[in-house]
Every structure is written in structure tokens, then in C-alpha cells.
TrEMBL record:
Coiled coil: 4-63
UniProt xrefs under InterPro entries: Helix_hairpin_bin_sf, Put_N_fixation
Stated name of the protein: Rop family plasmid primer RNA-binding protein
Pfam families named in the record: Rop-like
Organism: Bradyrhizobium cytisi
Similarity remark: Belongs to the UPF0437 family.
Presence of the UniProt keyword Lyase in the record: no
Keyword terms of this UniProt record: Coiled coil, Nitrogen fixation
Domain of life: Bacteria
Length: 66
């Protein structure tokens, strides 16, 4: 498998992870004020997931330009 193909596969997995984190954050927001103490940890998880996804997308873009 080429670097581009493996990076695309990783991005697909990270995208699913980010989508799940987004849904977790959305679900938490609908339940507020119940579980308000989880806001920071759930938001951090979503932030980290999207940050990692964006980084890998930039890596793929750089590979495609090379």
C-alpha cells in the first residue's frame, strides 16, 4: 500500500472518530445541565479528534503536491 493510500485509510478512520466525538458533544449539549461537569473533557476529545484529522488532511495535501 502506498503512502497516499495508507494516509487516506487513516483519514477515513480519523473522520469517523471525529464524527463520533462531534455527536458526543452534541448529545451532551442536549442533556445540559445534566452532566455539565463532562463539558471540558468531551469538548477536549472533540477538539483533539478534529485537530488530528486536519493535520492528516494537510499531510495528504502535501503528499499530493509532491
Amino acid at each position: 500500500m502506498s503512502d497516499v493510500e495508507s494516509l487516506k485509510a487513516e483519514i477515513k478512520k480519523l473522520s469517523a472518530k471525529a464524527t463520533q466525538a462531534k455527536m458526543d458533544l452534541h448529545d451532551l449539549s442536549e442533556e445540559l445541565p445534566v452532566n455539565w461537569t463532562a463539558i471540558l473533557s468531551v469538548a477536549q476529545k472533540a477538539h483533539d479528534a478534529f485537530s488530528e484529522l486536519e493535520s492528516k488532511r494537510q499531510d495528504l495535501q502535501a503528499l499530493n503536491k509532491a
